[in-house]
Protein backbone atom coordinates (compact mmCIF):
# COMPACT_ATOMS: atom_id res chain seq x y z
CA UNK A 1 0.00 0.00 0.00
CA UNK A 2 2.74 2.46 0.92
CA UNK A 3 4.65 1.68 -2.26
CA UNK A 4 1.49 2.30 -4.30
CA UNK A 5 1.08 5.68 -2.61
CA UNK A 6 -1.84 4.85 -0.31
CA UNK A 7 0.10 5.79 2.81
CA UNK A 8 -2.95 6.49 5.00
CA UNK A 9 -4.37 3.01 4.39
CA UNK A 10 -0.91 1.49 4.87
CA UNK A 11 -0.50 3.25 8.23
CA UNK A 12 -3.90 1.99 9.45
CA UNK A 13 -3.30 -1.58 8.27
CA UNK A 14 0.22 -1.62 9.70
CA UNK A 15 -0.98 -0.38 13.09
CA UNK A 16 -3.56 -3.19 13.25
CA UNK A 17 -0.90 -5.81 12.44
CA UNK A 18 1.49 -4.26 14.94
CA UNK A 19 -1.21 -4.46 17.64
CA UNK A 20 -1.58 -8.20 16.95
CA UNK A 21 2.20 -8.57 17.12
CA UNK A 22 2.39 -6.74 20.45
CA UNK A 23 -0.46 -8.77 21.91
CA UNK A 24 1.23 -12.08 21.03
CA UNK A 25 4.96 -11.38 20.93
CA UNK A 26 5.01 -12.31 17.25
CA UNK A 27 2.52 -12.05 14.39
CA UNK A 28 0.52 -15.29 14.03
CA UNK A 29 -0.18 -16.64 10.56
CA UNK A 30 -3.91 -15.87 10.94
CA UNK A 31 -6.08 -14.03 13.44
CA UNK A 32 -9.75 -13.19 13.92
CA UNK A 33 -11.50 -9.87 13.47
CA UNK A 34 -11.15 -9.50 17.26
CA UNK A 35 -7.36 -9.78 16.78
CA UNK A 36 -7.28 -13.15 18.57
CA UNK A 37 -5.01 -15.91 17.30
CA UNK A 38 -6.71 -18.18 14.76
CA UNK A 39 -3.77 -20.09 13.26
CA UNK A 40 -0.96 -19.76 15.81
CA UNK A 41 2.09 -20.53 13.71
CA UNK A 42 4.70 -17.86 13.07
CA UNK A 43 6.59 -18.80 9.91
CA UNK A 44 9.06 -15.90 10.03
CA UNK A 45 7.46 -14.05 7.15
CA UNK A 46 9.18 -10.72 6.48
CA UNK A 47 6.15 -8.72 5.30
CA UNK A 48 5.51 -6.76 8.50
CA UNK A 49 9.16 -5.75 8.79
CA UNK A 50 9.22 -4.87 5.09
CA UNK A 51 6.05 -2.79 5.42
CA UNK A 52 7.55 -1.01 8.41
CA UNK A 53 10.59 -0.12 6.30
CA UNK A 54 8.44 1.24 3.46
CA UNK A 55 6.34 3.29 5.87
CA UNK A 56 9.49 4.81 7.31
CA UNK A 57 10.77 5.62 3.81
CA UNK A 58 7.44 7.27 2.95
CA UNK A 59 6.85 9.17 6.20
CA UNK A 60 10.33 9.61 7.74
CA UNK A 61 8.58 9.06 11.07
CA UNK A 62 11.09 7.67 13.61
CA UNK A 63 8.21 5.66 15.12
CA UNK A 64 8.72 3.13 12.32
CA UNK A 65 12.41 2.79 13.15
CA UNK A 66 11.41 1.90 16.72
CA UNK A 67 8.75 -0.55 15.52
CA UNK A 68 11.20 -2.14 13.09
CA UNK A 69 13.76 -2.60 15.85
CA UNK A 70 11.13 -4.19 18.11
CA UNK A 71 9.98 -6.55 15.35
CA UNK A 72 13.53 -7.68 14.66
CA UNK A 73 14.26 -8.11 18.37
CA UNK A 74 11.18 -10.34 18.71
CA UNK A 75 12.23 -12.47 15.76
CA UNK A 76 15.72 -12.82 17.20
CA UNK A 77 14.46 -13.53 20.73
CA UNK A 78 11.80 -16.11 19.88
CA UNK A 79 12.87 -17.81 16.65
CA UNK A 80 16.68 -18.00 16.86
CA UNK A 81 18.05 -21.54 17.13
CA UNK A 82 21.68 -22.74 16.93
CA UNK A 83 21.45 -23.40 13.18
CA UNK A 84 19.44 -20.30 12.22
CA UNK A 85 15.75 -19.54 12.78
CA UNK A 86 12.72 -21.76 13.36
CA UNK A 87 8.97 -21.46 12.93
CA UNK A 88 7.02 -21.59 16.15
CA UNK A 89 3.58 -21.57 17.71
CA UNK A 90 2.78 -18.06 18.91
CA UNK A 91 0.32 -18.91 21.69
CA UNK A 92 2.91 -20.76 23.73
CA UNK A 93 6.13 -19.87 21.87
CA UNK A 94 6.81 -23.52 21.02
CA UNK A 95 9.03 -24.46 18.11
CA UNK A 96 7.14 -26.39 15.45
CA UNK A 97 8.17 -28.62 12.58
CA UNK A 98 6.03 -27.80 9.54
CA UNK A 99 6.74 -30.07 6.59
UniProtKB/TrEMBL annotation:
Can you say where in the cell this protein is located?
Answer: Endoplasmic reticulum
Q: What is this protein called?
A: Alpha-1,2-Mannosidase
- Name the principal localization, coarsely classed: endoplasmic reticulum
Its GO biological process annotations read:
carbohydrate metabolic process; endoplasmic reticulum mannose trimming
* Record bears the keyword Glycoprotein: yes
InterPro entries tied to this protein: 6hp_glycosidase-like_sf, EDEM1/2/3, Glyco_hydro_47, Seven-hairpin_glycosidases
UniProt GO MF annotations: calcium ion binding; mannosyl-oligosaccharide 1,2-alpha-mannosidase activity
The similarity comment for this entry is: Belongs to the glycosyl hydrolase 47 family.
Protein species of origin: Hymenolepis diminuta
Q: Which UniProt keywords apply?
A: Endoplasmic reticulum, Glycoprotein
Q: Which GO terms describe its cellular component?
A: endoplasmic reticulum quality control compartment; membrane
UniProt keyword annotation of Calcium present: no
Amino acid sequence: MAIAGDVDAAVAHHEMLYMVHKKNGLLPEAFTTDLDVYWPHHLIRPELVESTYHLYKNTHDPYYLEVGAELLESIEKYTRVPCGFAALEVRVILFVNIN
